[in-house]
Each structure stands twice: as structure tokens, then as C-alpha cells.
Amino acid sequence: MNRSIDTVVKQARRTGKRVAQRLREQETQALAQVCAAREQGKAPPPTLRVWGPYQEGDQRFRLKVAESGVERSLTFRSLDEAEEVKADLLRRHGGSVHRTVGEVVKEWLAWCVEVRGVKPITVENYSKMTVRLPQCVIFGQVTESDARKLYQHQIEAVSAHTKRPVSVATHHLFLWVAKRLWAFGLSQGYSRTNPWAKISPVGRKPTGKAQLRIDEARRFEAVALSRAQAGDVPALGALLMMYLGLRQGEVAARVARDIDDGGRVLWVPSGKTKNARRRLKIPEHLRPIVLAVMEDKRPDELIFYPAHHQQHRRQFYINHVKRLCRLAGVPEVVPHSLRGLHATLALEGGATADAVAKALGHSSFAMTAQHYASPSSVANSRSSRVADALSAHNQAESQDVKKVLKNMSPKDLLALLDGLVSMGVASRISDDKFPT
């Protein structure tokens, strides 16, 4: 029996060797035919596909190369070596789909608008980040090493506007956009890997904007109100940001029909997020100014932004808020700071966290606390709620004690008083104070 099994195993091994040899010969013949056809110009250059690199063990990285049905694996000792070989193969023989970075960027931005419904202002910000990428390079040829060098260049870049290094938020956004762009390209078959996937953002983004202090806010409000009463529409827009916690884009986008109920209500039908839709009460002393501004305006006509501007420019209200700061003699801030100031003052004034979050168009107070309200105002608000809760608890206990004392007999009250006197927490009261 054992001899028979051994014989079968040997036969199977010999058969396996013959099959493997035949397959190798077939692959060799197929590759030879492809090479011969290419040399004679009878066949179009086949598409070369490269997958990887894949890590195998601590110091082995594998590339998988396929052309005309023939596949091969190549192993390397380092990731950089594998990436360089991959880039060289794609440069020499072409990737699966030849598209430049610039071509993929255009396709992706159009997809963001048409498929994802991304707002034009957001797509414009994406576009500002993508111009920093090498537009003429083949999309699938960008390696992880290339991506790291590009990101490092963004970290070290100096802003042409401020003459200072770009902010952490700026190069974080660049990295975020690059990752999303290559994820799109990956799904479309323009690249086999996402070279940005393993790159982590450097540095920590600051949260919130510098805010005016209370006395400074009062001076700013006084100047803005005086200017608004004199017909300065941007000053009125700045006041609405501070009083109602509006974004500058929400102020700029308001049309005449958004002012309702005789100037008492301002509607925000849409905005940056789904929670931006809300109805806000306009302060009573601003009603006459708002009504004067919207007088003779068509229902769909802008009221806080020049009608001749076809597209909202962020710099419009930034410049006007800084102008008002200079007139008031306070530190220059940006419109978003007025929104944060609203959150801070509202909390200090006793508004609940949920009410402030809803006024700003946030789904929860966590966003408000992280980016808008000052940490001290959040802490003070929590302390006030704790104090109010304790006060309410103490009042309830006091009412309970009074109720118990009221139901006690005069004899029991005297006995309780004697006990308190002996403990030194009360003085003796004459017996005639208690009826018998």
C-alpha cells in the first residue's frame, strides 16, 4: 500500500513539472511574438501595467508588472528603490492611462460640482491648491517620494501676499486636496496607487480667530453703528455678523426677501452646511437701518453686498471690517472674529450652549467651543450652570427643612433648639417665643 502511494506522488510531481515547463514555454513564446510584432511595427505598443510596491517582510518590496497577458514580479530591498523602478518603467513604456495631472484636476473639479454638488466657492479653493501641483507630469507617474517632496515644499513656502511662511491650515488643505484628487484618479484608473496616502500633516492648526475684548467691541460697535446710520452698508453687515453670528458669506448673500416681518426677522435659507438654515431676530435698533437699505430693492436683489459684483469676494468684508477697526482704534480683526465674538459674548451673557450653537448654524456646541467661543467664556458658562444648579438644589433643601419644621410640635422644636444650643450653633430663645 505504501509503495503504491509513493508511486502516485512521484507521478504527480513529474506531471506538475511537465505542466509548469509547458506554461513557461507558452509565456516565452507569447512574449517573443509580442516583441517580434513590435519590432516589425505590426502591433501597437501594448499597455504596461505596474502594481505595487507591496511590502513583504521587513526589507522586501515587490512590484507586479503585466504586459499582453504576461506577468512578472520584481523584488527590491527598499521602498525608494521600488518606487524609482516603477517610475522609470512608466516613463519608458507608459502607464495604463496617459493623463497629465492638469487634465485629471479639470475632470475632478467638474466632478465635484456636477456629481458631489460642491459649492463653487469651495471648488475655487480646491483649484487654488491644485495649481501648486506639477500640471504636465503624467498622473500615474507621481511616486510617494515625489509627493513628500511636494508637500515639504508647501510647508517651506512663503506667501506672496504676507511675505511670511504659509499657515499650517494652508498646507494641511493642500495635502487634503491632493489626497482626494488622487483617490478620484485611482477610482478612474489613472493611477494604481495613491502616493499621498501615507503622508501625515505636519504641525497643528490654530483654532479660532483673535477676538476683540469687551471694551474694544463696544468701541467697534459704536463706530459701526454711527457709520451704518449714515448709510454705510458694509458697516451694517459687520454689525449683523457681531449681533447675529453670521458668516460674511451669509451676510453678502442676503436678498431683500430674506428680511421679513417688517424688518424683525432675517432668514438664512442655506449656507455652508445643512445646519446653516435658520431664522434670526434682528435687533430692534437696527430695524430702521435695515428697512432703509432694502427700500426699493427687488425681492431677489442683494442688500448688503454691491450688486455689480457677480461673485462674492472674501476680501470685500475683510477690508471693510479692518477699516472699521482702524476708525474705532482697536486691533484689526477679520469678519470671522466678529462671529466668534458673538459666541463669546452670548455665553458670557447667560445664553445656553445649545442656543449659541444653533444661532451660529452648528449641529453641536463642540464646533462652537473649538473654533469660535473663547475658552474662558465656555468655562464661565459651565461654572454659571453649576452654580445655578447648586443654588437651585440649596433652595429646594431649604424649602424641605421649612416644611419639616412647620410640621413639628412646639415641644419638639424646643428639644431641637436645646440640641443646637448645646452644639454651639444657636443661641437660647425664650420659651415664650413658642406657643404651648
Provide key terms for this protein:
disordered C terminus; 3-stranded antiparallel sheet; 436 residues; extended; hpI Integrase, Chain A; 4 domains; mainly alpha; single chain; 16 helices
Write the layout of secondary structure elements.
Layout: H1 2-40, E1 48-55, E2 61-67, E3 70-76, H2 79-93, H3 101-114, H4 120-130, H5 144-156, H6 168-187, H7 214-229, H8 233-244, H9 248-252, E4 259-260, E5 265-268, E6 278-281, H10 287-293, H11 314-328, H12 335-348, H13 353-360, H14 365-371, H15 375-406, H16 410-423
Antiparallel strand pairs: 1-2, 2-3, 4-5, 5-6
Q: Main beta sheet: strand number and arrangement?
A: 3 strands, antiparallel
- Extended strand count: 6
Q: What is the CATH H-level superfamily of the largest domain?
A: Intergrase catalytic core
Q: In what range is the share of β-strand residues?
A: 5-15%
Would you list the SSEs in sequence order as H and E?
HEEEHHHHHHHHEEEHHHHHHH
Low-confidence stretches: 350-393, 429-436
Kindly state the percentage of residues in helix: 55-70%
What would you call the shape? Answer: extended
Q: How far apart are the termini?
A: 116 Å
Rg (CA only): 36 Å
**What is the CATH fold-level name of the largest domain?**
hpI Integrase, Chain A
CATH class of the largest domain: Mainly Alpha
Number of helices: 16
The protein's oligomeric status is single chain
Helix vs. strand class: mainly alpha
CATH architecture classification name of the largest domain: Orthogonal Bundle
Mean pLDDT across residues:
74
Q: Could you give the order of strands across the largest sheet? A: 1-2-3
For the record, the count of structural domains works out to 4
